[in-house]
UniProtKB/TrEMBL annotation:
InterPro entries: Beta-lactam/transpept-like, Glyco_trans_51, Glycosyltr_51/Transpeptidase, Lysozyme-like_dom_sf, PBP_transglycosylase, PCN-bd_Tpept. The keyword Hydrolase applies. This is peptidoglycan glycosyltransferase. Residues 42-206 form the Glycosyl transferase family domain. The keyword Mitochondrion does not apply.
Length: 681
């Protein structure tokens, strides 16, 4: 008795400090492309009890535990029979375990065949039966039982072996899956398909005849002809999974059994093939969704390679803002900067060139000259360029402290530079990139949803300067070093870059930014990175949005003379881009005033321009979320919460709602929570 009570309290303490029977291994999540297709084969798929076919439950209980609803966790008769068999064979060859014991072993113990493990699963089963209902135990078992090939549960097994949802399984498929339970490796459908099918027939023949609507002979024939669904596994997808898991940590997702929908476009990914020296990435430059990337996750997101001439558009932009224009004349002749005597790639000099020619043809000497005159001295110029790239645009990397920066000795990753190039099609806005769009728990409840968010807004650069740079970088693709990337009917802009150990092309349309990078010595970007970029750009025509870069017609007159809010009809009739305008002024107005201005303008144009009205309504749906309706979206869109709350009446109902929202966001957005605290005081 003393030994019994000691064991009882030891295992009871062990049980109380263990996990729920519904906890799943954290590796077992289902990852989906943006169209809902799975990225890798399912390892785990939660199925609720009322979604499990009743025939499967009958077959399972008959085969594994016929007295499941009668016993209290252990079956003395079955255990006695198993004990006699084990004594006869002088080893543990039969378990006599109930479904509850099998569940206890799966969740809490190991597969070792020892007396200690048997005693523990008996007592744990006793505790489980007192903590959970029979239905909960059955549901947990169906979702956790090991069925080979790293699969947990019948839901995942149905997907992996038959390409079906559990509810769609035929009788013969159910029987084979149940047969696998007794030996997941011995009856592995991929390694030993005939063994798996024979075991299914054994289960079939053990059933009473009245269990089966069809005759057993018919089902035997179907099992014999059964073909298992092929394994769908592509090692290239592993890098996508690694990146998703990195974002899981960033959003605080812990545990397993989740269904995670991502931004990855399967068709886009599958349409491009790269080798081991190549990396590429595409980001939606309006939402921040990472549509695809190719190559190793480390190479794309963390490696640091010199960007070469791909850096030039950033300081050319500063020059345009300082009063230069495309026709400004720049010297192209031998120059020396201290001990450094740079050369043009073709070793020739033209005397003078225009700013446009220097960028389109990627000529080094005039570019270095331009970079050295951004500020009052070459050193101050370098500091200004570094500050712009590092602190304002936010490019993380290794920066030199000398004028070689003008030729791209900055070392950074394709991911960082892709983000940075967003400022050109977006006229100064950089969206916050993300991969995970939605997360569902094991019961199908939506527990996380990501909305687009602006990461940075570049101040003090005019739309005229951005527009001029967009014109220049379109010419790079049409006439300059990026010609090989040009695709008919695609408004692609971009810039090439070549360094000692890598070649680059960074480009953009009105809806996507892409970067291709090839590592190696003595490379030419026009023959390596640029053709790859063209392959990706071609795929964007079929699988992307392929919008044109916004063109601000008569920018000053549109911005200064014609405001969409003041003269909506004139603005639209003169070619103004309404969505682009709304994006540019989104954060310039208090939320309520912005909402009021948009609705007022809509009333004026609704009958004249119904197509534009639809675009605005869609923009409102994506961007104009009221704080009380969707506080997370409101904050993520960057609206000023303090001015919003000051513009409304705070009554008792509002205070209660604010307190409710406060409790939801206080740990996620502590700065915004303090604003609510101040208002509630």
């Amino acid at each position: 008795m003393a030994i019994f009570f000691a064991l009882f309290f030891y295992i009871y303490d062990y049980y109380n400090n263990s996990t729920s029977i519904f906890l799943v291994d954290p590796r077992y999540n289902t990852y989906l492309f943006d169209n809902g297709e799975q990225i890798l084969s399912t390892k785990y798929k939660y199925v609720k009890l009322d979604e499990i076919p009743p025939e499967l439950i009958y077959f399972l209980l008959w085969t594994e535990d016929r007295e499941f609803y009668e016993h209290n966790g252990i079956n003395i008769k079955a255990m006695t029979r198993a004990a006699l068999t084990n004594i006869k064979n002088f080893s543990i060859v039969q378990g006599g375990s109930t479904l509850t014991q099998q569940l206890a072993k799966t969740v809490y113990l190991t597969n070792e065949r020892t007396i200690k493990r048997k005693i523990m699963d008996i007592m744990l089963s006793f505790f489980l039966e007192r903590s959970y209902t029979k239905e909960e135990i059955l549901e947990a078992y169906v979702n956790s039982v090991y069925l080979g090939n790293d699969i947990s549960g019948f839901g995942a097994a149905a997907k992996r072996y038959y390409g079906k949802d559990l509810q769609s399984l035929s009788y013969e498929e159910m029987l084979v899956l149940i047969g696998i339970i007794n030996g997941p490796e011995v009856y592995n459908p991929y390694k030993y398909p005939e063994r798996a099918k024979n075991q299914g027939m054994i289960v079939l023949n053990s059933l009473p005849n009245n269990f089966i609507i069809e005759g057993k002979d018919i089902l035997t024939g179907k099992i014999d002809k059964m073909v298992f669904y092929p394994q769908t596994y592509d090692e290239r997808y592993l890098n996508l999974i690694y990146r998703i898991k990195a974002e899981e940590e960033n959003i605080g997702l812990k545990g397993g059994g989740y269904t995670i929908k991502t931004t990855f476009n399967k068709n886009l990914f599958d349409s491009v093939t790269v080798n081991s020296s190549t990396s590429a990435i595409v980001i939606n430059n309006k939402t921040g969704e990472i549509l695809s990337f190719w190559g190793g996750e480390y190479d794309v997101f963390y490696s640091q390679q010199q960007v070469g001439s791909a850096i030039k558009p950033f300081y050319y932009l500063l020059a345009l803002e300082n009063g230069y224009d495309k026709d400004t004349t720049l010297p192209d002749q031998p120059m020396k900067f201290g001990d450094w005597a740079p050369e043009n790639f073709d070793k020739t000099y033209r005397g003078t060139v225009t700013l446009e020619e220097a960028l389109v043809d990627s000529i080094n000497i005039p570019s270095i000259y331009l970079a050295s005159h951004i500020d009052i001295s070459p050193q101050r110029s370098i500091e200004t360029i570094k500050n712009f790239l590092s602190n304002i645009v936010g490019v993380q990397g290794k920066y030199p402290n000398d004028l070689t920066l003008a030729l791209g000795t900055l070392e950074t990753s394709p991911y960082e530079f892709t983000k940075a190039y967003s400022i050109f099609p977006n006229y100064g806005l950089i969206p916050s990139p993300y991969i995970i769009t939605e997360v569902y728990d094991k019961k199908g409840n939506l527990i996380y949803k990501r909305h687009p968010n602006i990461e940075r807004k570049i101040e003090d650069i005019s739309n005229d300067s951005y527009a001029a740079m967009n014109t220049l970088m379109r010419k790079v693709v049409l006439e300059g070093t990026g010609q090989r990337a040009n695709v008919l009917d695609l408004d692609l802009h971009g810039k090439t870059g070549t360094s000692d150990l890598s070649a680059w092309f960074v480009g953009y349309t009105g809806s996507e930014v892409l970067t291709s990078m090839v590592k190696g010595e003595d490379l030419l970007s026009s023959y390596t990175a640029v053709p790859l970029a063209r392959e990706i750009a071609t795929s964007l025509l079929y699988y992307g949005q392929s919008e044109e870069v916004y063109v601000y017609l008569s920018l000053k007159s549109i911005q200064e003379s014609i405001s969409f809010f003041e003269s909506p009809i004139d603005f639209v009739s003169t070619g103004g881009n309404v969505v682009g305008y709304l994006n540019s002024v989104k954060l310039d107005y208090p939320f309520k005033e912005l909402e009021k201005n948009i609705n007022s303008a809509l009333r004026e144009i609704q009958y004249l321009y119904p197509d534009v009205m639809k675009e605005i309504e869609q923009w409102k749906k994506e961007n104009l979320m009221d704080f009380f309706q969707d506080p997370f979206s409101f904050i993520q869109n960057g609206y000023d919460l303090e001015s919003y709350l000051n513009s409304i009446t705070i009554d008792k109902d509002t205070q209660e709602k604010l307190m409710e929202i406060y409790n939801q966001i206080k740990y996620i957005y502590p700065d915004q929570s303090k604003i609510i605290e101040k208002i509630l005081e």
